[in-house]
Amino acid sequence: MTPFTTHTGIVATLNRANVDTDAIIPKQFLKSIKRTGYGPNAFFDWRYTADGQPDPDFELNQPRFEGRSILVTRNNFGCGSSREHAVWALAQDGYRVIIAPRIQRDGKRLPGFADIFRSNTTKNGVLAVELPEEAVDTIFTLVAENPGLKATVDLTTLKAAFHGPGPTEFDFEIEPGAREQLLKGLDDIDLTLHHVEAIDRFEAHHETWL
Amino acid sequence: MGKTLFEKIWAAHVVREMPDGLSLIYIDRHLVHEVTSPQAFEGLRLAGRQVRRPDLTFSTMDHNVPTTADRLAIADPISRAQVEALETNCRDFGITLYGLGDARQGIVHVIGPELGQTLPGLTIVCGDSHTSTHGAFGALAFGIGTSEVEHVLVTQTLVQRKPGTFKIEFTGRLAPHVWSKDMVLKLIGLIGTAGGTGYVLEYGGEAVRALSMEARMSICNMSIEAGARAGMIAPDETTFDYITGTERPFAPKGRDLERALDYWRTLPSDADAAHDRALTIDTAAIAPQVTWGTNPGMVIDIDQPVPAPDAAAGYSRDDVEKALDYMGLAPGVKLSDVPLDVVFIGSCTNSRIEDLRQAAAVLDGRRKAEHVELLVVPGSEQVRQQAEAEGLDRIFKAAGAQWRFAGCSMCLGMNPDQLRPQQRCASTSNRNFEGRQGKGGRTHLVSPEMAAAAAVAGKFVDIRTWLE
């Protein structure tokens, strides 16, 4: 896996909450037995018109987002199906970082990302960053006001800096295990195989009822 | 302090504690299907690795397979290649496969319990988010991505962070014509589609204890729609009767069964166990539920109007406007006034024998509305055979339904069973996302009984008054 240390790129926004993995990569593309070729089909139903042309009404199709690699969106991104194809599609469509808000409202906790999706990002060198809701609102405004806005997301210092008219920087947190895996680009199967003797010992007395 | 059901199972499966609060946990059952596994097997081949425990790995074809009588010859070459890849992978790596034409083939979350592969106290994973279904047996079961599928194939373990626990207590009893599907839709409406993220849900209370295993599976199945990777119900006599009352080839027998039962009886949460969060729901007050929007949390009682954009708790005005626009609905409309085009009875949520009996009871002696297409898809070939033995297929056909072979079918429309743009569907499945059942299709989630009644009326009805 490609390590992730720091990334600088153009920021694009998708102003929708609860974007599900069916929307990120629709079912018809799940018939492939390959790991590649998903990029042009990311957000397929929103991205293209019925005749297969880019839909100018879809937010991410705006010319100002040409060459973007950082996606800023709303809460609960990647909910629904466990399909890792969703992360493959985003990564192959050029996204290295996805930013979504963590919201506390009316006693409810609305995380930025769905669990399985977040776990899938880490295994594919894509960084999922949760920021407070106000920070994400600020970024949406910055992006709206500054076409071509770039940001630098640094996993070593845990800072996301937006290169607007004035510098705007946010600290973020990430699970230490996920950070380690992303920074080093580690193959987690290799890592677990270091524990194969522990697995052998566990298995020797573990009941599976088969 | 006592332990919860989840904590007991977790503790029994920790192979090793890892740095940063992670644990290496052992996996007892790995269920594999055609869609999320080919890239994992490719990874094994590229690295020259083997499947560590093919005896704990079981495979079937369900997501993309046709459900029509001519299903063995899959017309779509890409679907056929995916099915053939699974056949090759299972043969090469020594994994048991219930393929097309096998009398045990079916939706992975229907056949696991049916064959006795799903048992209390186990850890069960599958590259499918609805793996939460198996938690109905008091197992820890959750969906994983393809990288994790590969990890389990090679190591029979996963590196996981211990989630929190969220107790959902359903007090009282269900009113007539209200089902476990309505219980879980009500819950998702209350806590939202991310309300359970980071938690394992444990369902309890009098109403849950009174449910059959089939009904419990429908609840645990939709835990993921509340954001929770897993949902669980403590095993009890209902669970044990399900496992031992019918021939289930992989369930323990004889002395093993006695040992297993002794262990399973220790699993329920201790009286003094603490959950991280808790919610109590008055079951008697639950009405039949219908979704109006584009996620399962956008749900109302059948007798409530579709909400206005500023009146849907937990959703922004913009979210609601987008959902209503996609669904072709105006605020204030009653869903009982909106005509339907398709009714789908099936999916890993509601395709078991009990679900089909409920639908058949409504359809017996009645006929679907002329303009409605009615599709009944059993969850497994065993369910199909049992339904036919009970004569349910004749009731469905007499009502004008298409009676199909087992598969995921129109729940996700990977096979030819799809909605056309703007078609409106009453569905017993689990997701009403945009395009889920077919591009532009409009999905309303309901119970099997509500779906069957909607097929007859040609629109949604309040099953509680319509049947009288």
Describe the structure.
The complex is a heterodimer of chains A (210) and B (468). With 210 residues, chain A is α/β, with parallel strands linked by helices. Chain A has one domain: Aconitase, domain 4, CATH 3.20.19.10. In chain A, 30% of the residues lie in helices and 23% in strands. Chain A has 8 helices and 8 strands; from the N terminus they run βααβαββαβαβββααα. In chain A, strands 1, 2, 3, 4, 5, 6, 7 and 8 form an 8-stranded mixed beta sheet that branches. Chain A is globular. The two termini of chain A are 36 Å apart. The relative contact order of chain A is 0.17. The mean pLDDT of chain A is 95. Chain B has 468 residues and is of the alpha/beta class. Chain B is built from 16 helices and 19 strands. In chain B, the strands form 5 sheets. A 5-stranded parallel beta sheet of chain B has the order 5-4-3-6-7. In chain B, β9, α6 and β10 form a beta-alpha-beta unit. Chain B is globular, with a radius of gyration of 21 Å.
